Amino acid sequence: MQSTSRVALRPLLRARRTLATATAGHHAPSAPAAEAKRATAAIPLSNLEAQWALLSPDEKSSVAEQLEELQKRDWKSLSQDEKKAAYYVAFGPHGRRKPIHEKGDGFKILLSVMGAVGVSGVLFYAIRHASPPPPQTMSKEWQEAMNERALEQKMNPITGIASEGYKGPGFVTHK
Question: Model-level pTM?
Answer without folding.
Answer: 0.39
